[in-house]
Specification:
The protein is of the alpha/beta class. Helices cover about 30% and strands about 20% of the residues. It is globular.
Amino acid sequence: MPLELDDRYSRQVLFKEVGLEGQKRLAGARVALVGCGATGSALALLLARSGLGMLRILDRDYVELSNLQRQSLFDEKDARESLPKALAAARQIARFNSQIAVEPHVADLTPANCAELLGNVDLILDGTDNFETRYLINDHAVKNSVAWIYSAAVGSYAVTLNILPGETACLACVFPDPPHGTVETCETAGILNSAVNLVASLAATEALKYLVGARSRMRRSLLSWDVWSNERAEVSAMRPLEGCRACGKKEFVHLAGEGRPHITLCGRNSVQIHERQRPVDFGEMQKRLEPHGTVRHNEFVLKFWHEPYEMTLFPDGRAIIKGTADTAIARSLYARYVGS
């Protein structure tokens, strides 16, 4: 049922591009948000205050004190209690807009649960921190003709892309392969909250356009912006590529599980993650990890201790993470410190 259109949305209704009809459409809209960290929490905050009908939030992580600099939905109490981000976000949204139906899922998006968690929505938003999950979203979206918006931020850099299956290039058209080698993450390169809020504002506006029926006004380009250097780039007129494995050939390898790292329990209280074709420069990695724990390496292996975990990293990207038997925690640690 559409939300009651009370006075809280009056200023948005006055904006003629939304209007009363657009606000009613928004009130009936259903959106899935994958990841509720920095970009995800800012997206959730903006859309929830805009009067979205239903927001499904998926996140595998929990709130930490270091999140509060940029993750706008959380507070110190959430961090002290180590609340799962999806649940903490749902609680916070209920405090300022109890009209919205929020579905929190403390879960890792996988090929096995993708259809269930991303099903029956009008739009999918990207609040993730890795290409593996984004390719999975892209496969699902292209296969089922669901629009989604790619968003990312690290350091002072932000980038976003609208993906309208059959109409625009998909993520696999633009990035046929993930970045080679190790990539910077928020844990190693840091992040400015202004970059987060910029990309979230851009993506949330594009989401509003789509949900209120202003699809023709959506940006057809990959937009990147460095808020520190003031460098801006835009790749325009992006159309689907015939040779693209997803939208051209309809080969959904990530949805089939072929693009995921091999993850296994490895003895007692440890997990092995094997990223295919991911060479690691130990010297570079040591510099990145030293601010976060103890690191040492030789020609064959790098050891990283970040209490209560120990990571052993191999030159081909394989890692053994000791201190947990939870594969979701191991994947989260790998994504934070190695990147994915």
